[in-house]
Amino acid sequence: MNDVIFKAFAVTNEIDLNKIALDCGIPKKFTWEEPLILKGEALEMIVRRSVDESQKALVFSFGSVVFVNDASREWFLPFVRYLRTFEPNIDETDADRYTDDYRLRTIAEGTAELTDEYVVVTEIEPFHEEMIATVLAKSVALEKIEEQLGKIHDKLETMIDRLDKNNLRLGKKELARTTAAIMRHEYNTISYIMILDKPDITWTSSSAGDFYDRMLEFFEMNDRYAIIKSKTEMLYRIMEGFSTISHSTRGLFIEWIIVLLILSELALAVVQLTGWGGG
Q1: Which residues, other chains included, contact 246 with Cβ-Cβ below 8 Å and sequence gap of 6+?
Q2: Whole-number Å distance between alpha carbons of 108 and 121
Q3: How far is CA 5 from its chain centroid?
Q4: Tell me: the pLDDT tens digits for 152-188?
Q5: Residue 10: is its pLDDT beyond 60?
Q6: Which residues pair with 230 in a beta bridge?
Q7: How far is residue 76 CA from its own chain's centroid?
């Protein structure tokens, strides 16, 4: 049997699956926990070419797409353009920046094996494709988040350099934008990617649950998530420090303004008294 080939892309932060399902004539209400699986005529309409029974595309609400058995990648561009009709913020030129591929192989005899390029099973079960696609989709989405986190770190490093140079002026807008970026990053990680959430089938099938847990462990999803959470908490602590410095600087500035106003009033009073005395 030929390998089942998976190609995953993190194209955006969020995709409304129900809008796509409605456009494709799929009478189902999708929740955050399940992917939209496109195949047959629905997929042919999108990629504008014929597809066979083994080919499909899984679309995830947290912005990832996984193509199954399309090694040529000729689906990618028309599929992204189709998604942009629902999610205009998708950058077509940068949509393939975060990507990964994987293979599912079978052997008649022997034991299952996990590697960084493929997984080997003795017999393909109905849940294998969805479990692999789900982990792969979360992994590329997490890669996107990890890079965004790095950009926030770079921004904070620039702000720290300014403090080292005794430039204590940190504007409210700058602090607000940076804090919003951190909150958006955390929200995307926890709410969208749902690293800690398992597909429904893992609760009803022990085999599916075991396979999914092995895939998660191999892709180090929990460890990567824990590192991101730790870094995020550190970012919040740094921002609290910036906020404290900003408030202290602003409070000191206001105090000096008050002192200057008082001195101005006293000076004016002295001038007036001096003038009256001269008269």
Answers
A1: 168, 170, 172, 175
A2: 9
A3: 24
A4: 766 666 666 655 555 545 556 656 566 666 666 665 5
A5: yes
A6: none
A7: 20
Measure the CA–CA gap between 19 and 6, rounded to whole angstroms: 24
pLDDT in tens, 11-25: 988 899 999 999 999
DSSP the chain: -PPEEEEEEE--S---HHHHHHHTT------TTSPEEE-HHHHHHHHTS---TT-EEEE-TTSEEEEES-TT-TTHHHHHHHHHTT-TT--GGGTTSSEEEEEEEE-SSS--EE-SSEEEESS--TTHHHHHHHHHHHHHHHHHHHHHHHHHHHHHHHHHHHHHTT-----HHHHHHHHHHHHHHHHIIIIII-TT---THHHH-HHHHHHHHHHHHHTTHHHHHHHHHHHHHHHHHHHHHHHHHHHHHHHHHHHHHHHHHHHHHHHHHHHHHHHHHH-
Rounded to an integer, what distance in angstroms lies between the CA atom of residue 33 and that of residue 197?
8
User: For 96-128, how does the pLDDT look when each residue is reduced to its tens digit (9 = 90+)?
Assistant: 999 999 999 988 776 678 888 999 988 888 899
Measured between alpha carbons, how far is 60 from 33 in angstroms, rounded to an integer?
9
- Which residues on adjacent β-strands are paired with residue 7? 67, 101
Contacts of 150 (CB under 8 A, 6+ apart): none
Distance, in Å, from the CA atom of 95 to the CA atom of 116, rounded to the nearest integer, reads 23
Nearest to 60 by CA among 26, 94, 83, 34: 34
Dihedral, 154, 160, 165, 166 alpha carbons, nearest 10: 150
Half-sphere CA count of 83, side-chain side, radius 13 A: 30
Report CA 47 to chain centroid distance, whole Å. Answer: 26
The residue to which tokens 């000076």 are assigned: 267
